Amino acid sequence: MGKVIAFGATARRDDGMWGVVATLGRRTRIASIYATRQAALADCEWRMQQVAAYRAFLRQSGQPVPVYDIRPVRRTDLPRAWRPLPALGFLRGQFF
């Protein structure tokens, strides 16, 4: 009973995640989250390819072109009703 037990770091492993962030003007939204940086980089690259493929369509339809980047995010950074964004950053003409 007199034994002292040392606990490790109390931070949870899933608290540190990587997010793909969409920026549209001054608005930023977390598009998707991943446990590893490599997975976030792959998704960011895929989203940028989709934007490049549809760039002419976006400009012709008057939709702004989102810019994607990756950043470290915490679970507390996510809004309560967070949902992943579509690849082009909007759905039904609205940027989420």
Structure, described:
- The chain has 96 residues and is of the alpha+beta class.
- The chain has a domain at 17-77.
- The protein has two helices and five strands.
- It has helices at residues 37-53, 55-60, and strands at residues 16-24, 27-34, 67-74, 90-91, 94-95.
- The strands form two sheets. Strands 2-1-3 form a three-stranded antiparallel beta sheet, covered by helices on one side.
- It is elongated, with a radius of gyration of 18 Å.
- The chain starts with 15 loop residues before the first strand and ends with a strand.
Helix share bin: 10-25%
Fraction of residues in β-strands = 25-35%
Q: How many β-strand stretches?
A: 5
Parts with pLDDT < 50 across at least 5 consecutive residues? none
Arithmetic mean of pLDDT: 80
Q: Helix segment count?
A: 2
Physical arrangement of strands within the biggest beta sheet:
2-1-3
User: N-to-C SSE series?
Assistant: EEHHEEE
Largest sheet: 3 strands, antiparallel
Alpha-carbon Rg, integer = 18 Å
Structural class: alpha+beta
How far apart, in Å, are the first and last alpha carbons? 55 Å
Shape: elongated
